[in-house]
Amino acid sequence: MELTTIWFLIVGVMLIGYFVLDGFDFGVGMALPFLGKDDTDRRVLINTIGPVWDLNETWLIVAGACLFAAFPEWYSTMFSGFYLALLLILVALILRGVSFEYRHQGKGREWTRWFDQFIFWGSLLPPLLWGTAFANLVQGLPIEELSTGGWIYTGSLLTLLNPYGLLGGVTLTLLCFTHGLVFIALKTEGDVRTRARALATKVGIVTLVAAAAFLVWTVLMHGAHPNVVLIAALAAVAAVAFIVGLIANLRGREGIAFAGNAVTIAFALLTIFAALFPNVMISSTDPALSMSIADAASSQKTLELMTWVAVFTMPLVLAYQGWTYWVFRKRISRTHIPAAAH
Predict the structure, then answer these.
(1) What is the pTM of this model?
(2) Of 35, 38, 192, 290, which has fewest CB within 10 angstroms of its CB?
(3) Could you tell me whether strands 279-281 and 291-292 are parallel, antiparallel, or unpaired per DSSP bridges?
(4) Rounded to whole angstroms, what are the CA distances from 104 to 13, 115, 189?
(5) For 222-239, what is each residue's pLDDT tens digit?
(6) Residue 244, by phi and psi: left (phi above 0), alpha (psi -120 to 50) or beta?
(7) Chain CA centroid to CA 239, Å
(8) Can you give the three-state secondary structure of the chain, one letter per residue?
(9) Could you report the per-residue pLDDT of 326-335, keeping only the tens digit for each?
């Protein structure tokens, strides 16, 4: 296998890690107004992700760095085309992070309420915009090859807001919401856990309908694609994993339900990458103008150096993250939240 293909897969794995891990962070943030009956409940919800949310976000930073170094043409064209969407995502992530740190400053109910709103919207907008962006990558974008070299995106933000793109955004948002609710049930005790499981079932049913529609649409859209069998198989695994997760949640097996949701997100993203391959950006203007993996890639020596760095550093990163989750593995309840605590 060529290094260009290996790094295409590595970028995919980084993004899978980001959406599986930060995905439940988004879901917890979205659950705040639905499960937080009072401030103590909301503090319980926030504390389920308190030790790990910023660690989970580093996967996005690493994925962006890998994309920049391994596929500079893809990085530049996509980031210029999605500039406004990515700016909104960045603002939302900043507001969410600031809110986690400042909501507990004890300056009154209005102060706390504003930061709770920032957490909610800062958790809702990123998966909605990310899902819309990835769906448009699969559908194809108006990109053209420049005579001086490179590619340019000729559309606008409104170009991305098409039915398929919006369905992808809604689907990813619902997946993250369900993922977060199951994580809350996995990490809490008492009434919060019971209500999280009940809401996860309701949201999960809606998510199943949206995800099925998106995956079927994706398979039909790529009926002539050489990877159509692989695309259909990956989509089927995602659907089965989600159904298993729903059933496990109904039976109170939150660990299995969480794993099922993680597999769903992973295979949904693998479906998208399979639909893209061997391209990284598909041109809706003219398929011949699509940007291939080879077109977008850095030099062989750059990829070789990156590979050695990844071989030595990734095991350390994974070990540290695993250790962090092990340390903070215990469940949280209202009794763990003293009146004067964060």
Answers:
(1) 0.92
(2) 38
(3) antiparallel
(4) 35, 9, 22
(5) 777 788 889 889 989 999
(6) alpha
(7) 17
(8) CCHHHHHHHHHHHHHHHHHHHHHHHHHHHHHHHHHCCCHHHHHHHHHHHCCCHHHHHHHHHHHHHHHHHHCHHHHHHHHHHCHHHHHHHHHHHHHHHHHHHHHHHCCCHHHHHHHHHHHHHHHHHHHHHHHHHHHHHHHCECEEECCCCCEEECCCHHHHCCHHHHHHHHHHHHHHHHHHHHHHHHHECCHHHHHHHHHHHHHHHHHHHHHHHHHHHHHHHCCCCCCHHHHHHHHHHHHHHHHHHHHHHHCCCHHHHHHHHHHHHHHHHHHHHHHHCCEEECECCCHHHCEEHHHHCCCHHHHHHHHHHHHHHHHHHHHHHHHHHHHCCCCECHHHCCCCCC
(9) 888 888 888 7
Domains of the chain, first to last? 3-141+161-336 (1.20.1630.10)
Nearest to 181 by CA among 225, 246, 240, 90: 246
